Known about the structure:
There is one protein chain. Helices cover 25% and strands 41% of the residues. It is built from 3 helices and 10 strands, in the order αββααββββββββ. The strands form 2 sheets. The chain has a 6-stranded mixed β-sheet with strand order 5-6-2-1-8-9. It has a 4-stranded antiparallel β-sheet with strand order 4-3-7-10. β1 and β2 form a beta hairpin. The longest helix has 20 residues. It starts with a helix and ends with a strand.
Amino acid sequence: xxxLFTFLIPLVSFFISRETYFHDxxxxxCEIQFNEDSSTFEIATQIYIDDLQKSLLGQGVxxxxxxxxxxxxxxxxxxxxxxxQKIRLTVDGKSLTPKYIGKEPSEDFIAVWCYLxxxxxxxxxxxxxxxxxxMDLYDDQRNIxxxxxxxxxxxxxxxxxxxxxxxxx
Length: 169
């Protein structure tokens, strides 16, 4: 009987701790900075590659093999199409058009940094940010958006039921 408890307790502890320590986290990070010299919003967003690929597959996009030597030649086209649907900026009620700058892997190669630029009027009173990256995949997806406009800094926490927010300047 003691032998049973010797193996049972560690086994149960292992499965309990697995649930606690190996829970998936569904978070992406987006940084928005207004460049006054070029009158553009510069976007850098970090997305986990496996989640991004899963979301793209759900839209009928083939396996892109992002940031690998097997990456498809037109991967950037698919990526830009996805990002332009999921990240939108509106200034004073006018939608801005994104321009794709590029991408690079994160230092640990589990995420990809994607870069966009939105031309904007030099002066504006409000900025509306919509970030729906990966929200089609996970109900608990959270997108943290850091914003720096002129001398003001702030952040937004966006999720499926609250995927956009307007900031006044």
